[in-house]
Amino acid sequence: MPNNEPGSAREVKSGDVLHLTRAASVQFLRPIFVRVIRLPDWVTYDGWLWIEGYELGPKGEAVVRRSLFDQTVGLIWQDAPVPVARPTIRRQDRRGPVRVR
C-alpha cells in the first residue's frame, strides 16, 4: 500500500513513483511525478538525497530524465499514474452470401 504521507521513514528504491512538491525542495514550485531510476551514492547533507529518475507526464509516460536533490521528509509515494485507456473501436465485417461449390 503506498504511503501518501510526507516525511515517512520509508526507503526510496528504484521503480518507486514519487510526488515531489515544495515540501521536498523549493525547486518544485510546480509539483511533479518522478519514477526513480537509481539513488546515486553522492555525499549529501543529513536528511537530503539525490534521486535520478524520469519526470512523468500527465499520461504516466517518461518525459525527461532528471537528477534531483530532495529532502527525505518531503517525499510522497504514489501509485504510478494510470495511462488513459483509449476505447477500442470494433468494426463488424459485412458478410454477403457465400457461394458453395
Q: Could you please describe the fold and organization of this structure?
A:
- This protein has 101 residues and is an all-beta fold.
- It has no helices and 5 strands.
- A 5-stranded antiparallel β-sheet has the order 4-3-2-1-5, with no helix packed on it.
- The radius of gyration is 22 Å and the shape is rod-shaped.
User: In whole angstroms, how far apart are the ends?
Assistant: 64 Å
Q: What's the total count of β strands?
A: 5
Look at the helices and sheets and give the structural class.
Answer: mainly beta
Stretches where pLDDT falls below 50 for ≥5 residues? none
Profile the largest sheet: 5 strands, antiparallel
Beta-strand content bin: 25-35%
Order of neighbouring strands in the sheet with most strands? 4-3-2-1-5
How many individual helices? Answer: 0
- Give the helix proportion (percent range): under 10%
Order of helices and strands, N to C? EEEEE
Coarse morphology: rod-shaped
The chain-level mean pLDDT equals 83
* Radius of gyration, CA atoms, in whole angstroms: 22 Å
Topology:
Blueprint (H helix, E strand, L loop, with lengths): L16 E4 L11 E7 L9 E9 L5 E10 L4 E3 L23
Overview features:
101 residues; mainly beta; rod-shaped
Summary?
This protein is mostly beta strands. It has strands at 17-20, 32-38, 48-56, 62-71, 76-78. Helices cover 0% and strands 33% of the residues.
